[in-house]
Specification:
Blueprint (H helix, E strand, L loop, with lengths): L1 E2 L5 E6 L3 H5 L6 E11 L2 H13 L11 E12 L2 E9 L9 H8 L3 E4 L5 H10 L2 E4 L5 H5 L2 E8 L9 E16 L6 H25 L15
Parallel strand pairs: 2-3, 3-4, 4-6, 6-7
Antiparallel strand pairs: 1-2, 3-9, 4-5, 7-9, 8-9
Helix pairs in contact: 2-3, 3-4
Length: 224
């Protein structure tokens, strides 16, 4: 782990070790190098679970790896698969699968947008895994850090649903939004919003109860 050119941005190499993951804290920002496996497929997660239950090998080795919820499209040039773009998808779509996948494969990082639910957070606390939040709507910025697609698995699926291993260089910035100690930025925000809601509702009710000032020209303004 090292500091990037910006003093508050870490430079991390994927896959992280469990020990490295446990050193990260909520709000840490990072640029990522190394390798990551990505997919945006619901059916892909179902296949991973089915393979784990049957004791079958996965087409790509995911043990101790980084898995991002992210789709992409590539073109072939000079024998390499170069990304046209990558784009994160909402991780909560896969909440039903991820606790099992995190625990069984001992993932050390997951990435995407929108966070993950409480059962996923608990699985990450148990195994030593962090969640990297990617900025939504920043596909051009993220695509610049995905430099090559190295291999794919389950090629009968459409391109975005396959398991695909990418090489990253300065990918991000991403934010540690769930750490490996059971802390979640999403849960904190929900609690803060719930705490503010009564005051907001009282302010709205008071605004509705306040008589509207009458201005000249309004229908109910007194005639002169």
């Amino acid at each position: 782990m090292s500091r990037a050119t910006q003093p508050d941005v870490l430079r991390l190499t994927l896959p992280l070790s469990t020990e490295e993951a446990r050193t990260l804290h909520l709000g840490d920002m990072a640029l990522l190098d190394g390798e990551v496996t990505v997919t945006a497929g619901f059916v892909t997660h179902e296949r991973v679970i089915a393979a784990l239950e049957k004791g079958e090998e996965l087409p790509l080795d995911l043990h101790g790896q980084a898995v991002f919820h992210m789709g992409g499209s590539c073109r072939q040039e000079n024998g390499k698969w170069l990304p046209n773009y990558v784009n994160p998808t909402t991780s909560t779509r896969f909440d039903a699968f991820m606790p099992t996948i995190i625990r069984r494969l001992r993932l050390t990082s997951v990435g995407g947008k929108g966070g993950m639910g409480a059962e996923c957070v608990e699985a990450m606390r148990e195994t030593g895994c962090v969640y990297f939040s990617m900025p939504g709507g920043a596909a051009p910025l993220l695509s610049a850090g995905a430099v090559e697609r190295l291999e794919t698995g389950w090629d009968d699926l459409i391109e975005q649903f396959r398991l695909a291993r990418y090489r990253l260089e300065s990918f991000g910035p991403v934010t540690v939004a769930i750490d490996a100690h059971g802390n979640s930025m999403y849960r904190n925000l929900q609690q803060q919003a719930a705490g503010r809601l009564p005051d907001i509702l009282r302010e709205l009710e008071a605004a509705r109860s306040t008589p509207k000032p009458v201005r000249p020209g309004d229908d109910d303004a007194p005639l002169s």
